[in-house]
Structure formats: structure tokens, C-alpha cells
Specification:
The chain has 472 residues and is an alpha/beta fold. The protein has ten helices and 39 strands. A hairpin with a 2-residue loop joins β2 (33-34) and β3. α7 (184-191) crosses α8. The chain is elongated. It starts with 9 loop residues before the first strand and ends with a helix. The structure holds uridine-diphosphate-N-acetylglucosamine and calcium ion. Calcium ion is lined by residues 232, 234.
Amino acid sequence: MSHETSALPVAAIILAAGKSTRMKSKTPKPLHHVCGIPMTQHIIGACREAGVARIVVVVGHEAERVKKGLGDEVEYALQSNPKGTGDAVRSAESLLKDWQGSILVLAGDVPLLPAENLRSLIAHHQATDAAMTLMTMEMKNPFGYGRIARDEAGRVLRIVEQKDANTQEQALTECNPSLYAFKGSALWDSLTKITPKNAQGEYYFTDTLQILNEQSAKIEALTGVDPQNVLGVNSRVELAEVTTILRQRILYRLMLSGVTLIDPASTYIEANVQIGQDTVIEPNVYLFGDTVIGEDCVIGSLSRIQSSQIGDRVKIYASQVDQSVLEDDVKVGPFANLRPKTHLCQYVKIGDFVEVKNAKFGVKAQASHLSYIGDAEIGAGTNIGGGTITCNFDGFDKHKTVIGENCFIGSNSTLIAPITIGNEALVAAGSAVAQSVGSGDMVIARSLPTVKEGWAANRRAKKHAEKAAKNR
Ligand code: UD1
Ligand code: CA
């Protein structure tokens, strides 16, 4: 047995060039999301976690879009014409021809594959010094999978594809999950010998097994892969199935790390979301993207949080939070809408029916009811009265509202940007303010009241008299 430190480096080839007709989609299959991450990115992640040093993704159908979607942290090989899995692997040859370590070959449409499976594949392959190691799985319903044919002594002979299998072979239940490890030389050499003489007229990668057997190369089979881990996505039905399973795994991981989920069945949390200890997530909560939530928070029912940073002891009730930063001890909702670039410092309170966009609230500032605060800076300790609107848009351009510290903005104020309001200033309720206000000043911008004494009582009396005359 080789020691961890003397292990050979590993490269991986991930096949993602197929046309995937059954998805019936304008989006190429590798880019369909499973819990917030493109399908093929899940396998790339498992490779990284398993310590794979080089990752080559074979692209073909919509190659440029797939490359853009998967990013530049991996290498790409182009299969210009999909002629089968064997042909797909061969298109990575120029990149990995001289690779001295092991080479994994994996499919790009198995997003549930855990790094653990790859680690055991690599460990077994290197410990046995095999030319090829394949993993196998037992299937109750093996239809569609390549079957593993063995000899009387139990040695693996070859892989028979569904469409090429005779009745006897179709009865075999040991199947090929498409998880292989190779010595580079054995891989490239056997690939030159495969032919498209089969039911589908394709270059089957699976034929490399028989070719290496004929050369008496050392083949190892690692049995007992959990079929759930290699569930392949071919249609939207399977996309939903793998999403359900991955969602369960995410929720279990969070619960086991100390997060309370009151009703996991109605909780949707994507793969990259992080949540701190003792935070409570109520039913019907949706957490997306790279959201990070601190400790001891409460995320109330009907909240939807996307790609946001949430501190400790934050309470969010029935609100939308998108691409925003909420520091410790912030309170939001119910029914608030925090749009991108909202930044709420410690102890800020945003109440019901308040919309915030591209605005920063200083420590302890608050807007408790019915406001729109956009393109603004609100100083620490400032109180925004109910019904306050920052008029940030003049029909052509956006303008900024800057409000100092400890200000009092009276209810139903209309602040016409660009505008600056100094520290400790006061805006009288119902004001429409179009010019800046100095520190410590008060502004009142509403028409002077006209009181007509007795006018309403006189009117009522007159109306009653008119009605009485009519009815007489
Ligand atoms: C393959 C295996 C089968 C195995 C099954 C497990 C072969 C011949 N068969 O069959 O034994 O049980 O996987 O799921 O390998 N691809 C390309 N270029 C191509 C063809 C395919 O990149 O020219 C990619 C696809 O995008 C996909 C992967 O290879 O990601 C597998 O191809 P697919 O056609 O789905 O193979 P299966 O018929 O499922
Ligand atoms: Ca498949």
C-alpha cells in the first residue's frame, strides 16, 4: 500500500459534449442548475474535494456557452462532433498525453457524486497499480445501463451496452456507473483501438475494458457504488429527482451542524448557503446563492433571501432580501423588500412595507413603515417616518439623497434628490423638500393651513335643510 504522501497526482476528464436532446431546453445540460449550481460544476467540485490536480471538461454542443458557464478554473477540450463517449475522451488526449499520474474518466451529468466515491476509486486504483479500475453498481432495474459481463472466475470481461445486449446479458444486474480510473499509457493506447462497430455506430468508451483485457493488462473492479450517488440527468424529471435528493443532503448537513429547521419539507436552501449555529429557519423559507447567515438569527416564514450577508442575531420576517448586507442585530419586516446594495448597520430596523435599494442605513437608524429609500445614505440614529419617499429618479437620471445622523424625517415627507440633510435636522411631516437642509435646521414645506370657522357645520345644516324641503 502506498502512503498518502507518495500517491500519484490525479487528472480527471469530465464528459459534457453531448447534445442532451431529452432535456428539451435552450440551455445546454451541463449548465442546468441543481440547488443553485450548474450540474457539471457539482462534479468539478467533487474532483477538487478529492484532490484532483487537473480537470479537463470535454465540451461540444454549445461549447462556448458551456465554457463561459463553468468558468476558467478548469481546462477544456473540444469534441467537435459527438461520435460517442470514446471519441469524447480522445479529444482530451492532446492535453493529457504526457500526464504521469492517474486519469479519471467521469460523466458530466451526475451531480450527486460525492468526493468520497472518487477518493476510494483513486485509492484502490493506485494501491493495486491497475491499468484500469472501474466502479460497478447493482441495479434492481438495470434498463439503459451498460452491463458488466464477468467470466466464471468472476473477472470483469467487458461492458455491454443496453442496445447491444442479448437476452442473457440483459438479465445482468451489475451495471456501469461510468466511473473509471486509468494509467495514462493504458488509456491512450486502448483508445486508438476502439471502433464504432456496434448497434449505435458510436465509439464506445466502454470498449477500452475489453481491449485492455485482451492485452492481459491489470483490471480492477470496485463494486457496491450506491446508485443514488450516480443518478444521471437526462430529462427534467431526473433533474427534479436529483434536486430533491441534493436538497435533503443540504438540509441534513445544516441540521447536523446546529441549525434548526422547523419544517425541512418546506425549506429550500441552495448548496452554497452557509448558516451559523442556533439560527432558526421557519417553514416556507427560500435561501439562494452565496447567502451567509450568522448565529442566533430567526428567518421567518415566507422570507426569500438571495446572495446576501446576514450577521448574528438578525431577525427577518416575511421579507425579500436580495444582494444586501445586514449587520448584527438588524430587524427586518414583516413585508419589507430589500433590493440589491442595501446595507444595514447594527441595530437598524426596517419595518413593514418598506422598500430599500442601493442605500446604507447607519447604526440604529430606522424606517418602520411604508417608505421607499433608494440611492441614499441615512446617518446613524436617524428616524425615517412612515410614508417617506426619496424621489431618486427625475425621469432620466438617478440622484442621491444624503441624510445626516440623528435626524427626524417626519411622516409622509417627499425628499427630492439630489438633496443633503445635515445632522440632527428635522423635516416636518408632510413636507415636499427640494433643497438641502443644514445641520440642526428644521424645514417645513407644505402650504399654510386655512381654517374657516364653522364652515363644515354650516354646510351640513344647509344640506339637511335642502333634503327636508324636497321630501315635504
Ligand atoms: C454511458 C455508458 C454506459 C453507462 C452509462 C452510465 C458508454 C458507451 N456507455 O451510457 O455503459 O452505464 O453511461 O450513465 O460510455 N458524451 C460526450 N460526447 C459524446 C457522447 C457522450 O461528451 O459523443 C457525454 C454526454 O454528454 C454525457 C456522457 O458523455 O455527459 C455520457 O453519455 P451518454 O450518451 O449519456 O451515455 P449513456 O448512453 O448513458
Ligand atoms: Ca447518460
